[in-house]
Design goal:
alpha+beta; single chain; about 50% helix; 4-stranded antiparallel sheet; elongated
């Protein structure tokens, strides 16, 4: 058996199907975890995203913060009940991106706090949200 018949990452024997699909690797996992490939992947991501990606993330985070602030103010004016699915629906329909936040914390009572800078919300065990008052900086 030749050395070429084995995966470069884990040395597992390659089938014909694997060698045509992933080259010298048995799986995408072996390809992605090889140190040489990790460097290439990171360099290509840095080249593709650059400063534009950082600016785009900052824009999304600011938009999320503004929506949380508007939602908290709306709740005060209209006596809106946070503990229903309407708040989540309102955030979603106004363009809130749930994948971007600045901090996430698990609380002792089983709830989760999600923050976008100083604004945030708490998700209870039933999946309903309630506001977190912003902390004033000294």
């Amino acid at each position: 058996m030749k050395h070429d018949d084995r995966c470069t990452g884990c040395s597992q024997r390659l089938s014909n199907n694997d060698s045509t699909r992933y080259g010298a690797y048995c799986s995408l996992y072996c390809y992605n975890t090889n140190p040489k490939n990790i460097r290439q992947i990171l360099q290509s991501k840095a080249a593709n995203y650059g400063q534009e990606w950082r600016g785009e993330v900052e824009y999304i985070l600011e938009q999320n913060r503004d929506l949380l602030q508007r939602l908290r103010q709306r709740e005060v004016k209209k006596r809106w009940v946070w503990n229903d699915h309407g708040a989540l629906q309102w955030l979603r329909s106004n363009g809130f991106n749930f994948e971007f936040h600045t901090q996430i914390r698990r609380c002792d009572d089983g709830s989760t706090e999600v923050h976008c800078f100083d604004e945030g919300y708490k998700i209870n065990s039933k999946g309903l949200i309630q506001p977190i008052e912003p902390v004033e900086s000294a």
